[in-house]
């Protein structure tokens, strides 16, 4: 598929799609043919899971996913303790996210949509 086709389907800007595809290409998930050749999976869908895709495109540290106010008041009993209170829980959430997303392959999603291969 070309970036223009994907952009039209997703409602996203074609330049953003090209940037994402370039990132996925560097990770060995897709191949890109120059010009209007488009992009294709470089590996079998069963060998690609959601966590692999997510980690290529998004940051995965709890600090990047969960944004805390950077200027919390040192005199506020809630604000000054918020990060230390929640950081451990946020790490657990990211771990659970990784475990769950790693269990779901691209092939599983294709099967659920009754598409088979893209």
From TrEMBL:
It comes from the Bacteria. SUPFAM superfamilies: Winged helix' DNA-binding domain. InterPro entries: Tscrpt_reg_Rrf2, WH-like_DNA-bd_sf, WH_DNA-bd_sf. GO terms for molecular function: DNA-binding transcription factor activity. GO terms for cellular component: cytosol. This is Rrf2 family transcriptional regulator, group III. It comes from Desulfosporosinus metallidurans. The lineage of its organism: Bacteria, Bacillati, Bacillota, Clostridia, Eubacteriales.
